[in-house]
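Crash report, auto-generated. Payload:
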Amino acid sequence: MRTGLPVSLVIVVALLAALPLAFTANTMLNFLTFVMIVTLAAQGWNLLAGFGGQFSFGHAAFFGMGAYAMAILQVRYGINAWLALPLAMALGAVVGFFLGFLSFRAQLRGSYFALVTLAFAEVFRILANASSFTNGAAGILVPLKTSAADFQFADRRWFYWVALAFVALVLALTYHISRTRFGAHLVAVRENEEAARALGVDAFRTKLKAITLSGAITATAGCLYTQKFLYIDANLAFGPWISVEALLAPIIGGMGTVLGPLAGAMMLLGLGEVTKSLFAMLLGGSIPGVDLVVFGVLLILCVAFAPQGVMGAIKRFSSRGAP
Amino acid sequence: MSTLLTCENVTKRFGGLLAVDNASLTVEAGSITGLIGPNGAGKTTLFTMISGFAEPTSGRVMFEGRDITALPAHIRAAQGIARTFQIVQPFAGLSVHENIAVGAYLRHAGRTEAMDKAEAVAREVGLDAMLAQPAGALTVAGRKRLELARALATEPRLLLLDEVLAGLNPSEIRDMIPVLQAIRSRGVTILIVEHVMQAVMQLCDTVYVLAQGRMIASGAPGEVAHDQGVVEAYLGHGAARKMQAHHEAKS
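Recovered output after restart:
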């Protein structure tokens, strides 16, 4: 990379890295780690949909592929977690390539593409729930081996920092892509595929490249999920919840921006948690799903008042303040 | 002059509709060639087949002696054919500069080089003052220039212009003509579909006339304008004879 990373990215990552020093409670660290995992999944979605305009409703397919590969490679084949990680990422890329090849070759766009991705994720979920290879509905338990050599950490802070490192890497990668020919082609395809082709852009290859990368990134989030919680089943790995959060975070944070998925995941999950604990405090018991109500309200507010998301609002605000 | 582009007996059928019927044309290198004809004559359809957005039902398209009939649009762009769209297609969410850079990336892999090239092209078509503006904020005339700039940024040898002057007012058209002449004078061959006759007469070396999918005349603009078949294609059957009679009666 010839151009240095912008200061804003460095500052954001440094602040996030310092958070565990200020908040040491386990619940807080668990929450922050979860935010990083969702951010990573959302970053994968953002590359394909935010930059490339190909809206997927089924990023659970990649997330679950990463999560299951990570678990199965360790439990069934006794492969070390650090070795399983790149294999699981590669598998996510392969699934992305395969899905992209089929749907982009068939020239699926817009809602048709979205529906096909949704169908893929659901098929994977049903298969994982039924097949004995994935241990069916019982799910897979990864044995507890708390050592860094097994990608498990006695100290929760370390897991958070590792997850943050992945997020930071993808931030840098996304920023880099946004300033390359591939990034320009991707955005051109999003804005107007026909005009892009007239200018020499191979739309099929561009989209295929994007979905392959996107699959690998979101699969990495799945890997982290497995290592963090050491248990997965079909609904956790391939369930629609992660498809929804992977797309809500960038939409609320700002699609097609480098920091959008991170900002969105922070806001989404943060407000979700706050509401949950508020209700628990006021009513003395938790209401399951109340955070989903918050997600819905946030989405509506965003669509109505900040269609460019948080990052767009910040940009508008700061340019208004500038002379 | 050598031949840059040839269409040989190109036919395009959409179901029962024969949009282009056995049309042939030749574009000499370094020329400005016009393609005119009444609405619905098949001009844009012929353009889409030359630029690779549609494949002819039969016939061949040759570029620099190679058969390009089956090549997809982005490969043709790489080989040196650029087109503009009759209905402008800006990347609305991007700035003017970024819009043009997408074209420039075709021959310049690096961001700095592509952005520099885009700026140079913007200056050539008179968009340099609006580089930072979002493309969606441009006027019609500005968008037409942007179409032209993006196509030019791919550094084509053949530029296909689909009604770049349509929707412009007379003074905007007057501003645009020298821009097109300057592009030609630095070696870019132009094939232009146009309804603005004043511009066609002023710009073109050769004009082809398409009516109901068939090529009915070709030649220097002055000759073609007085061709009986052409007058009838525009004004209806018998029009040429009536006009002749009218002229004779007056004299």
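Post-recovery validation: The interface with chain A takes residues 51, 53, 72-74, 77-78, 82-83, 85, 89-94, 98, 101-103, 105-106, 109-111, 114, 150-151, 153-154 of chain B (CB under 8 Å).
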